[in-house]
Amino acid sequence: MPPRKKRRPSAGDDMSAKKSRQDRYNIVKYIGCDDVVGPEGMEKFCEDIGVEPENVVMLVLAWKLDAQSMGYFTLQEWLRGMGSLQCDSTERLRNSLDYLRSVLNDTTSFKLIYRYAFDFAREKDQRSLDLNTAKCMLGLLLGKTWPLFPVFNQFLEQSKYKVINKDQWCNVLEFSRTINLDLSNYDEDGAWPVLLDEFVEWYKEREMS
Amino acid sequence: HQFREYPFLCETIMIRSIFLFLDRTYVLQNSLLPSIWDTGLELFRTHIVNDSGVQKRTVDGILEQIELERNGETVDRSLLRSLLGMLSDLQVYKDSFEERFLVETNRLYAAEGQRLMQERDVPEYLHHVAHRLEEENDRVMSYLDQSTQKPLINCVEKQLLGEHMTAILQKGLSTLLDENRVTELALLYQLFSKVKGGLPTLLQFWRDYIKTFGGEIVGTPEKDKDMVQDLLDFKDKMDNVAQGCFARNESFINAMKEAFETFINKRPNKPAELIAKYVDSKLRAGNKEATEEELERILDKIMIIFRFIHGKDVFEAFYKKDLAKRLLVGKSASVDAEKSMLSKLKHECGAAFTSKLEGMFKDMELSKDIMIQFKQYTQNQSEPSNIELTVNILTMGYWPSYTPMEVHLPAEMVKLQEVFKLFYLGKHSGRKLQWQPTLGHAVLKTEFKEGKKELQVSLFQTLVLLMFNEGEEFSVEEIRTATGIEEGELRRTLQSLACGKARVLNKNPRGKDVEDGDRFNFNNDFKHKLFRIKINQIQMKETVEEQVSTTERVFQDRQYQIDAAVVRIMKMRKTLSHNLLVSELYNQLKFPVKPGDLKKRIESLIDRDYMERDKETPNQYHYVA
């Protein structure tokens, strides 16, 4: 694990410093127009550090960089984020991947990442996440850890929902953490969003037949 | 003295008489010696009555006689009275007779209860029980000792009623109530009130009966037409039973109210809607079946049913819509009845509930004044119009919302509208007038071959008919272009003029429905016995639509009310757990609502950033300022 101590960037947005750092982080290779790492750059970047773009670790990285939207890193996000990770080259970043993965095991950080993922994946002109994206993101985040995920996914597929709002999104995590796999401790009169009430009802009906 | 009735006592009296002197002088002096009389009795008790053989035969005989009498035969009652009196006097009544008598009675009635419950129907059985009780009471009066009454009657009541309470009610109560058998119901109540636990059991069955029966009235959509009348009749009947048969027992009356409230709300919204429509049918003109007093009584009864309804807003919406129709078309039967109903509603639900309805009445009155002023105003105008115009000014918000519809009015009408607008806005500047052609109606003077007639028609019908001043024959399309009436509405209008009861237009080709290619011409041969003819708009389809949209509007309104209540509560409390919020909401909301619906509104408010969920404790909400 790299040392957590932050190294202060030598000078804010001084052009020469920026230039040299760009070199050090090899970002020039990836950067497209408007000082943004776009889809193509991202693909190349992923290749260089040896992970697939849809790997969950990329989400952790994006969270560390505080990236605003999926598929893009702005120059500023990149510089600030890599600074805090103390990485100045693809090699060093590759070595930090294990650390990034381990962040997922910390429940508090995971919750932050989970919540962050909603805004990250959302179309910026929409308040809610469209259902397909939501399903992919849920799969990425909970697919391996929540045994009920496949059933929940099935439920979403047959449901009338077109989008998932933030409240529903956040409650799915709570649900996956606190509710038993047989749903025995689910309280319909609790504060759960109706989406989850419906899931539980659907699931129980399915179990009956 | 009853002793004289037993032969043995006569003998004893004689012996005492013979030895009177001995008795008075010697025995009386000596306190240790019993009197001759007592000695006689004592000897008789010891040697005769307490002789087991004699006693057994005596008591057997008595019991046999009683059983015979119970089976309907005539027995020597004075003999029984003498014998039992003797046993009492000798103080052996309780031990030698009563005990066995009660055991026998118990056995007899246990068997009889079992048998007759099978054989007889409930009314017959009840009468039988009453009869038996009477007989046994009579027996006590005639020859049993008074002290036997209580255990004897208890025993009969227990064996004939107490043991069979549930069976009697299960088997008979609903039939008795269905058939309204007042006598038997009163008897039932009277009998059950004597048995331990009788009335609570009866109460339970009575409540269940009302719930089941009422549930059927309310829960059968095919019978919706008669629902309200059925409910009123049912309530009347049950009231009668409670008053007449159940001795106005408070708990029975309360149970009835509770049962009504339960079953009426089992089906949401529909009863409220139908009650509103029922009131409309009673308040509408042409309802000649009731005098003012009867009408008043009906309205009072309606209010009782109305009181049970949870979703009163549905009632209000439908009532308002119908009231608007009555007021605007001038179809209200009586202003007094309308006012009386309004005051009843106000009394029941408060001023907020009726403020809009009152506003509607106020509008109508104001409109009358305005029209008087308008008449004066037009008389002073340079070019008086030959059309009479009446305008009702409706305040938006008081009245149901009507979808505005643009139609092409004839130039004269448009001009008149302008005149009125000028007049009205001159008096009340800053107001906005919007004409509602859907609500307009007119009287047209027409000349047929048969003679002059007046047609009372809607504005749409007017527009169509006026076209025939200008030409002979028009197609549907031509009429549509000229009048600008919306397609469906136009078809219904044409149908009412050419296919209804009063056919002032001819349709070519003939037929019941209006098709695209149809052409219409004026029916000069039209005949009718009346001078003024009202041609009804065809409304069938519209009422269904109206009904749906009214209900929807109520639901929409309820959502706003839930939202408002949530925000109000959260604004005051800032942070609140889900359960507390929900219970607070149930306190505040005056209509029935499911917890799931509340949650949907809460989620929607979260989504719209009026509030947020606590990040750590998901069942806690925070108000977002």
TrEMBL record, chain A:
Source organism, top-level taxon: Eukaryota
Region described as Disordered: spans on this chain: 1-20
GO molecular function, one term: ubiquitin-like protein binding
Domain DCUN1: 16-204
UniProt cross-references to Gene3D superfamilies, sorted A to Z: Cullin, PONY binding domain, EF-hand
GO cellular component, one term: ubiquitin ligase complex
Pfam families: Cullin_binding (PF03556)
GO BP annotation list: protein neddylation
The protein's name in its UniProt record: DCN1-like protein
Organism of derivation: Myripristis murdjan
UniProtKB/TrEMBL annotation, chain B:
The UniProt record lists the keyword tRNA-binding: no
UniProt keyword list: DNA damage, DNA repair, Isopeptide bond, Phosphoprotein, Ubl conjugation, Ubl conjugation pathway
This protein's GO CC annotations: Cul4A-RING E3 ubiquitin ligase complex
Pathway recorded for this protein: Protein modification; protein ubiquitination
GO biological process, one term: ubiquitin-dependent protein catabolic process
InterPro entries: Cullin, Cullin-like_AB, Cullin_CS, Cullin_homology, Cullin_homology_sf, Cullin_N, Cullin_neddylation_domain, Cullin_repeat-like_dom_sf
PANTHER family, A to Z: CULLIN (PTHR11932)
Family the entry assigns: Belongs to the cullin family.
Protein name per Swiss-Prot or TrEMBL: Cullin 4A
UniProt organism field: Myripristis murdjan
Phylogenetic placement of the source organism: Eukaryota, Metazoa, Chordata, Craniata, Vertebrata
